[in-house]
Hints:
The chain is an alpha+beta fold.
Amino acid sequence: xxxVKFKVVMVDPKGNRQSxxxxxxxxxxYLKNTIVRAREGTLGVAxxxxxxxxxxxxxxxxxxxxxxxIRVRPVGHGNNVAELSxxxxxxxxxxxxxxxxxxxxxPPPGTMFYPAVEVIE
Length: 121
C-alpha cells in the first residue's frame, strides 16, 4: 500500500474542498473517499511528501484561514517538475500547458505530482 501524502485544499463557505493553485476548468474537487484524477494534459495532482511541508506552504502563501490539509494516497507514478505557472487562472494555465510564455515559479519544497489520488479525509 502506498504511503500517505498531504494535499492543501481551498475550503469554500459550503465546506467544498478544491484546488488551491488552479481555477476554472483546471480546478478539481476533493471529496472524501473518492479517487480524484488530474485533468488530462496537466502536470498531475500536486501533493506534499510531509504534513510539515504542506503546513509551510500554507504559511508562506498566507493560506491558513481558507485552506485545509487533507491526507491522500497517491495513485500511479509520481513526478517532480522544475516549474509551475505563477498564475492560477484558466487562461494562464492554458498558456503554460501550450508552452507559451507565462511567468513561472519553482514548486514549493516537497511537491510531487501524481496522475490521481485517493482522498482519505
